[in-house]
UniProtKB/TrEMBL annotation:
<dbReference type="Pfam" id="PF12833">
    <property type="entry name" value="HTH_18"/>
</dbReference>
<keyword id="KW-0238">DNA-binding</keyword>
<dbReference type="GO" id="GO:0003700">
    <property type="term" value="F:DNA-binding transcription factor activity"/>
</dbReference>
<dbReference type="GO" id="GO:0043565">
    <property type="term" value="F:sequence-specific DNA binding"/>
</dbReference>
<protein>
    <submittedName>
        <fullName>AraC family transcriptional regulator</fullName>
    </submittedName>
</protein>
<keyword id="KW-0804">Transcription</keyword>
<keyword id="KW-0805">Transcription regulation</keyword>
<feature type="domain" description="HTH araC/xylS-type">
    <location>
        <begin position="177"/>
        <end position="275"/>
    </location>
</feature>
<dbReference type="InterPro" id="IPR018060">
    <property type="entry name" value="HTH_AraC"/>
</dbReference>
<dbReference type="InterPro" id="IPR009057">
    <property type="entry name" value="Homeodomain-like_sf"/>
</dbReference>
Length: 278
């Protein structure tokens, strides 16, 4: 049975052994964190197959393109579900959230090789869940918000270490892998194929060919996808006006930014924001 939003918990901690049942429509309402102690889970994420094994951690944002989720018979896992609006309302730094989102869309599984990080992740799960359940606290709303922010910062710390490790690994990787790494780093301000081709010391035409061969998507299409993600997230941040977002993304003028947004989102930025309020 689908969950009713007004009755939905903000934080749900689940422990599973041998059988893992997630709430109906969980991916629509919750950001999902799963630490796999034993066994494995398999899934399609953005139409690509993945397998999370023991000692690994998987993270999906709410509304992710997730399908064919299955668990091994010997699964043992700890799951933390955080209601999407509650998490977004307490993000300490918007720019870092965008970096995490873009990284997670390409790399939903983190390899927590260090035992210390495994313990930190699980401790972080329990601290947030315990604080959510401590409804008798005199300053319940305030401390829960602070705990949510601390949770996010701790998880970003984990993501940052994975990101840096991956960056070092890909420095000697294929041209396609190096392009995707550069794209994650520079897509906020750089939207021309030539910029990335210059960094890789190849022609723009050859970069488009490489991407097409690897993913059936051209470099210019990848750049537009990443820029689109950033624009959508920045427009969700009501603390930034449209001119500030245009400056942040290195557009020469607000009118040029508006034309670009209309191209990638189908509507101008002001209308997109108005729709968010519906």
């Amino acid at each position: 049975m689908a969950m009713e939003k007004e009755k939905m918990d903000k934080v749900i901690l689940l422990k599973a052994e041998g059988n893992l049942e997630l709430p109906d429509d969980f991916i629509l309402h919750f950001h999902t964190h799963i630490f796999c102690h034993r066994g494995s889970l398999s899934f399609l994420f953005n139409d690509r197959p993945y397998k999370c094994k023991a000692g690994e951690f998987v993270f999906w944002f709410a509304d992710s393109n997730l399908a064919n989720l299955t668990f091994s018979k010997n699964i043992k896992a700890t799951v933390l579900l955080v209601e999407k609006d509650f998490l977004f309302a307490n993000i300490p730094d918007q720019s870092w959230s965008i970096d995490v989102l873009l990284h997670s869309k390409e790399n939903p599984i983190l390899h927590l090789n260090d035992k210390t990080y495994k313990q930190k992740v699980l401790s972080n799960f329990h601290l947030l869940s315990d604080k959510f359940l401590e409804t008798g606290h005199r300053f319940y709303s305030e401390v829960l918000k602070l705990q949510m922010q601390l949770f996010i910062l701790e998880m970003w710390h984990t993501f940052a270490n994975e990101y840096e490790h991956r960056k070092r690994t890909l420095e000697s990787g294929s041209l396609y892998e190096r392009f995707m790494q550069l794209l994650q780093e520079h897509c906020m301000k750089e939207r021309e194929v030539q910029f990335y081709a210059n960094r890789l010391h190849i022609t723009a035409k050859y970069l488009n060919y490489i991407c097409k061969q690897n993913t059936d998507i051209t470099a210019s299409e990848w750049i537009q996808r990443y820029a689109r993600e950033r624009i959508m997230l920045l427009l969700q941040n009501k603390n930034l006006n449209i001119s500030e977002i245009a400056d942040e993304m290195n557009f020469s003028s607000r009118s040029f930014f508006t034309r670009y947004v209309r191209k990638v989102l189908g509507v101008p930025p002001k209308e997109y924001r108005e729709r968010l309020g519906d």
